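Exercise 7. Given the encoded structure of a 326-residue chain, write a plausible sequence.
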């Protein structure tokens, strides 16, 4: 009797150990690929700083003024607005329109004038001790956080596509993995049928889901833009907010379905049928896409594919309203 039980137990342990080793090896290979491809570009943004050459506006300028990665100094008259990404806006003359700085500050000298709003993201608004020359109907919108990060991104756009390897970066990847794993567990527990049907639909009609998602993304993009331009501001803003909310909900649902489908596929590759579980599948799926989103340059296409597929899954889902005919 011992001779019949022990070999079966030993073979089961060997199969389980092999399955876990194979899955761990697959995840480590993906992580190594992310580190290998990201390492050469890990020091992007740490290059030797080049002295900044500001954009100086003298005389009369009819159109808008844009500064990318450098400051803008207005000494003359700008008929419209001034925007700087990654630099300061220094107003010494006159600006009839709005003044905005992303990753920089707005500095208004004495005797100057700004006719529109002042918008500052990642910086501050300085106007000296005296009251600035402003239009009484204009406003100031300011958010002072992340000035260095926004300035760095504006001056070195390539840093957006390549990760800078650091403990904080790996911590963010780990938090992203845990976040999507918990969200997947909660949504699967609340609505297991919807997640299972979505995963089955993704496996059987993936092309149809992708085409519908792409069409939906195009409609939302152009529809939101047209509504903001041609409809009244209140109605256009409301429609834009609804489109954004639809996109967020669709991405949340679709990402959970994609995690489940990916995890089940990985389990079929590396796990025996008796060792599979839904929670492990969700963890494997979340880990797979966390690593895929860490790949330099490729993560942008991965995000686009996830958004389009998620929108397609949400638009092709069958929603039971539970209405009864009386």
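Solution.
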């Amino acid at each position: 009797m011992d001779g019949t039980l022990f070999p079966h137990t030993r073979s089961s342990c060997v199969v389980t150990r092999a399955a876990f080793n194979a899955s761990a090896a697959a995840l480590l290979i993906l992580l190594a690929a992310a580190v290998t491809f990201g390492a050469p570009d890990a020091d992007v943004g740490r290059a030797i700083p080049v002295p900044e050459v500001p954009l100086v506006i003298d005389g009369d300028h009819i159109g808008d003024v844009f500064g990318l990665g450098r400051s803008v100094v207005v000494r003359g008259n700008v008929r419209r607005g001034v925007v700087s990404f990654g630099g300061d806006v220094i107003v010494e003359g006159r600006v009839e329109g709005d003044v905005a700085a992303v990753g920089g500050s707005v500095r208004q000298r004495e005797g100057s004038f700004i006719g529109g709003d002042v918008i500052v993201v990642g910086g501050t608004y300085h106007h000296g001790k005296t009251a600035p020359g402003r239009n009484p109907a204009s406003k100031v919108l300011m958010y002072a956080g992340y000035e260095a990060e926004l300035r760095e991104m504006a001056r070195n756009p390539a840093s957006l596509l390549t990760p800078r390897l650091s403990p904080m970066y790996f911590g963010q990847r780990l938090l992203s993995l845990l976040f999507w794993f918990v969200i997947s567990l909660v949504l699967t527990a609340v609505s297991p049928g919807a997640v299972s049907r979505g995963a089955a639909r993704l496996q059987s009609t993936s092309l149809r889901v992708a085409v519908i998602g792409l069409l939906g993304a195009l409609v939302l993009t152009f529809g939101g833009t047209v509504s903001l331009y041609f409809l009244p501001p209140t109605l256009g803003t409301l429609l834009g907010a609804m489109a954004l909310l639809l996109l967020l909900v669709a991405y949340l649902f679709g990402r959970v379905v994609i995690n489940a489908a990916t995890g089940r596929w990985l389990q079929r590759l590396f796990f025996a049928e008796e060792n599979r579980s839904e929670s492990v599948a969700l963890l494997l799926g979340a880990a797979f896409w966390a690593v895929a989103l860490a790949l330099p340059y490729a993560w942008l296409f991965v995000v686009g594919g996830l958004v389009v597929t998620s929108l397609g899954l949400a638009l092709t889902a069958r929603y039971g309203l539970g209405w009864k005919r009386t």
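Remark. The mean pLDDT is 78. Students should compare their own answers with the one above.
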